[in-house]
Design goal:
- This protein is of the alpha+beta class and 183 residues long.
- It is built from one helix and eleven strands, in the order E-E-H-E-E-E-E-E-E-E-E-E.
Length: 183
């Protein structure tokens, strides 16, 4: 086309943008990914809490065992599903009588466990004699549904090992030494 010697070109303008279907597809895929990530984070966080709780408990038990050797006194630990308490046998003074008595002996420490991640155990009380030897073998296990690398502690005569349950308690596994695999 030309008008008074000028040439004009007509070009087609294309509209750019997203269709409603494309937009809904992107939103749906994003929603699915966010949901998967939230559930993965929750599972990872549960595993982290279980591991840190059991590692802290293991260190407290090792320190109590060492303290019993250092001070040449019996020490004991009272366990419940949501807390544990460490004691030193001090009654009667000065060296105690070798009999655990939570009401009369000295409390060293008490830790409360996360109530969402309770523990199971084979004995409600651990005892370490004056040589640091465990009087009773015990296994402590997490009963939580969590993907944790460490979810059990095995206490034998002279060792305190952390491990992983071959079959988690939540899936019907036993809280015993045979199921707690040292890592």
């Amino acid at each position: 086309m030309s008008s008074q010697g000028k040439t004009y070109r007509t070009c087609c303008l294309t509209e750019k943008g997203f269709t409603l279907i494309e937009l809904l597809t992107v939103i749906s895929v994003t929603g699915i990914l966010v949901t998967v990530l939230v559930f993965s984070f929750q599972r990872w966080n549960s595993g982290y809490i279980v591991e840190s709780q059991l590692k802290e408990m293991q260190m407290d038990l090792i320190n109590t065992q060492a303290r019993s050797m250092q001070r040449s006194r019996m020490h004991f630990v009272d366990l419940t599903a949501t807390q544990y308490t460490l004691y030193e046998d001090t009654n009667p003074a000065p060296d105690g009588d070798g009999i655990p008595n939570a009401a009369l002996d000295t409390q060293i420490n008490q830790r409360t466990l996360n109530a969402r991640y309770p523990v199971l155990f084979t004995n409600t009380q651990l005892q370490f004699n004056t040589s640091g030897i465990s009087v009773n073998d015990t296994v402590i296990c997490s009963s939580a549904v969590a993907d944790a690398d460490y979810d059990c502690i095995e206490i034998s005569t002279t060792r305190i090992n952390i491990g992983q349950l071959a079959t988690p308690v939540a899936e019907g596994g036993a809280c015993d030494a045979a199921n707690c695999i040292e890592r």
